[in-house]
Every structure is written in C-alpha cells, then in structure tokens.
Design brief:
The protein is of the alpha/beta class. The chain is built from 3 helices and 8 strands, in the order βαβαβββββαβ.
Length: 175
C-alpha cells in the first residue's frame, strides 16, 4: 500500500475515454484512473459537488483532469477537480506567539510565514496561569481569543499572498 506524504495533494489524471466496448460511468472511470495512478488499496470516493461537475469537465478537458485528493483516516476523497492551486497551512500555537506558514501543496514549497502575539496573553502570560484562569470560569474566553487569533493570522497570510480560503485544502496545528 502506498503511503502519502501530505493530507491533501493535487493529482493530474488522464481518464480513458468511453468507447463502444467500454461504457463505464464517469465516476468509475475516474476512480479507476486515480487508483491506478496512486497504486493504493485505500478506499476512494468523490465529493458529491465534484461528482456533479465531473462529466462536463472530463469532456471539456479531453478526459485529462487535475483533482485534489485528501487523506481522511484510512481513506482518500476527491474534494476538488479542475483546481489550479492547492495550498496548506501549518500553525504553531505558542505560549507567547502564534505562527502560520503557507505552503503550495503542488510544489511543497513554503510561500510565506506570519507571526502574531498569542491573544491569550491578554489574560495570562503563561500556560499555568491560563489553566488557572480557565478553572475560574474564563475557559470560553480563552478559547474564543485563540480562535479569533488563528483566524486573523490565517486571514492575513491569505490576503498578503492573494490566496482564497477555498484553495486551502490542509491545515495542521501544533501547540
């Protein structure tokens, strides 16, 4: 079984054209082409919104497509087709700072990095003090601050690089 290095990756696929002797449905035709290309025995499926666009895309692009595949647990899902770009973001939730890196998942190159102060420092400067504040009933506030901080940082990273949120297919967070 093939191992995958990324949680999301683009894949160029050439699908066999239908013929008088091969009348498989477009879905099966695409799934077969992906399975052969990846040499994987993992279950594979196609997102319903993508599946609805596949027949016309295949014919418009002469049965040559670029798809975005994500690995979810022990399965693969086609989540986009005809996608020109595919990005991922890695986030480090530090005690003092939040850092986010933007990666091009086609080339596996780092595009940009942004950093900001962890907004939870407005309540307490260290983790133990934040735990104490959480036990005193401020847990939801700490959570809200972290979510707002991460969203703002990702928004800045995307805006600075002209990246639309719909083009981000993977997010990894460590703290």
């Amino acid at each position: 079984m093939k191992k995958f290095n990324s949680l999301a990756f683009p894949l160029d696929i050439v699908v066999e054209k239908p013929s008088d002797l091969d009348k498989k449905a477009d879905r099966e035709r695409l799934l077969d082409a992906i399975s052969q290309t990846l040499s994987s025995s993992l279950p594979l499926d196609i997102d319903l919104e993508v599946l609805r666009r596949i027949p016309s895309m295949m014919r418009e692009q002469d049965f040559s497509l670029q798809v975005v595949i994500v690995t979810l647990r022990e399965r693969l899902d086609v989540v986009a087709a005809g996608q020109a770009v595919c990005y991922g973001i890695a986030i480090d939730l530090g005690t003092t700072n939040l850092v986010a890196w933007l990666f091009d998942l086609k080339t596996f190159k780092k595009i940009d990095v942004r950093e900001t102060v962890n907004p939870q420092t407005s309540i307490a400067s260290d983790v133990l003090s934040r735990i104490h504040e959480s036990m005193k009933g401020r847990g939801e506030e700490l959570h809200r601050l972290m979510i707002e901080g991460v969203n703002a940082l990702v928004g800045q990273l995307c805006a600075a690089n002209g990246v639309a949120s719909r083009d981000i297919f993977a997010l990894t967070v460590a703290g």
